[in-house]
Write a structure and sequence with these properties.
Elements (H helix, E strand, L loop, with lengths): L13 E9 L3 H11 L4 H9 L6 H17 L8 E19 L5 E17 L2 H14 L1
Antiparallel strand pairs: 1-3, 2-3
Length: 138
């Protein structure tokens, strides 16, 4: 018999990739996620490649995974992919102690984050050709 198939979490023209427990705070990771939202996949990869932030390498890996999922699993065209969504969530927080003066201690929080990137195939090609034809006829 077997289990029923899982429903897709994204539409037919989208693919997603997820990375859990990335060792960075959600606030810092969201800065990088904001910088690639809405951009073409090629432009987002270029921006992440030359970003000075340490976590940009991990975000680039997740974006490359989403692009590979779109190409291999969902047969989407790579040249037309756009970063539709990039969102960050909290994961666990490791709590550590740091010895301080007079026998006291202070807390050190080591947060982790989750990252999900959704790439979508945009349908601008048809819209551009329709728009250029209407301009020529006017």
């Amino acid at each position: 018999m077997g289990k029923p198939a899982n429903l897709r979490r994204v539409s037919e023209t989208e693919a997603r990739a997820f990375a859990g427990s990335i060792r960075v705070s959600p606030r810092k990771l969201n800065l990088i996620a904001q910088s690639i939202r809405g951009k073409k996949a090629e432009a987002a990869l270029a921006e992440l490649t030359f970003s000075p932030r340490r976590i940009a390498r991990e975000v680039k890996r997740v974006l490359e995974s989403a692009i590979a999922n779109a190409e291999n699993n969902h047969q989407l065209e790579v040249d037309r992919l756009v970063v539709a969504q990039a969102f960050v969530g909290k994961a666990l927080i490791m709590k550590r102690w740091h010895a301080r003066a007079r026998g006291r201690g202070s807390r050190i929080m080591k947060p982790f984050s989750n990252l999900t990137i959704v790439v979508a195939e945009r349908a601008e090609q048809a819209a551009k050709t329709a728009g250029s034809e209407s301009k020529e006829s006017a």
